Amino acid sequence: MPKQAKQSVGQRLLARFRDAGAEEIAPDILLPAGDLLDLYGEDIRARAYVTQDPIRGEMMLRPDFTVPVVQAHMSNGAEPARYCYLGEVFRKQDMGDTRPETPRDHEYLQCGFELFSRDPAADAEVFALFHDALAPLGLQAQTGDMGLLLDAVRGLPLTQARAEALMHHIWRPGRFARMLARFSAPAVARDFPEGPAPWAGMRTEEEMIRRIARLRGDAAVAPLPPAWSERLDRLFALRAPAPEALPALADLARDMPAIAPAVARIRARFDAIAACGIDLGAVIFDASHGRMTMEYYDGFTFSFLADRAGWPPVASGGRYDALTRVLGRGREIPAVGGIIRPGLVAELEGRA
Length: 352
Known about the structure:
Organism: Paracoccus aestuarii
Keywords: Glycosyltransferase, Transferase
Distance between the termini: 14 Å
GO molecular function: glycosyltransferase activity; histidine-tRNA ligase activity
Binding site for L-histidine: 64-66, 91, 110, 114, 291, 296-297
InterPro entries: aa-tRNA-synth_II/BPL/LPL, HisRS-like_core, HisRS/HisZ
C-alpha cells in the first residue's frame, strides 16, 4: 500500500478526532529509554529499537504514543483534555512470524485519540468515536476489562505475595497458568544448606537471604482450593455478545464477590455504549481480551478486528489510570484512548 494512501486515511481520521474536540500533539520520535524501561521492564527491549546517544544516553524509537502523550499532559495539562496524533511507531518483527500475509511492519502509521476526564461516560465516548469512524469497514468490535481480572486475582484466598506474583504475570497467560497451578498444589519444601562457600551470583548476599526467607515462608502456605481455580478458569474463558456476557458475569460475581464492583461498572459502561446508538448484540465481551494488549491498561479495553488471517487489530485501546499516576509522580487523572492503523484501513477500503 503506497505511503500516500496511508497518509490520506490518517489525515481523514485525524480530522475526525479534531472535530471531536481533540488538540493535535506531535511527540518526539526518539524517547528516553529509562521511562519506558521503568514502565515495562526489560521486556520492552524485545519489541523496541534501542540506540545510544552520547549526551542523552539510551534512547528508543517511539514504540507507541500513549506514554509521551501522558507525560506531556501530566506536565501542564488541564482537565478535561482531548488529544489526537498521527505518526510512525517502530516495533521489531515478532520472532518466527514470517508469514507474508501478516501485515506486521517494522514501522507503521498510527492515528490516535486520548481523553483525560473524570466523567464516568468517558469509556463509552471513546468507544463510540472509534466505532463510528470504522463503521463502514464491518469490523468485529471486542471489549474487555483488566480491572475485572485484577480484582478477581486480588479476591483469591492467597497471601499478598502470591497474589502480587499472579497479578504481575496476568499479561503473560502461560506464566500465569503455571504459577496458578503451583499455588494450587501443596508447596514443596526446599533445602538451603549453609556451608563455607562464599555467596555468588548477581544478587547481593542480603537480597539472597531475603529471597531464601520468602521461599521458606511460602513452603508453609496452604494450597489454593480447587474451587477458586475453577472459578478463575470460568471467568477467563467467558466470551460472548455483551447481552449474554452480562448475566454470566453476574453469576460469577456470586461466587467471586471481589468482582462485583467491576461487573457493575461493566454493566453501566454497556448501558452508556447502547445510549450512543450502538447495537450491543454486535459487541463481543471477552474477559481475557485485555491480557493481549499493552500492560499499562488497567480497566476497559477494546479492539476492532478485520476478518483477515494473521492481521493485528485495525484499532485498539483502553483505560490506563495507573499510568497517569506513575508518570504524574503521584498526581493522576482517569484516562482512556486508542489508536487506529491507517495502513490497514487503506487496505480494507482498497479491497471493498
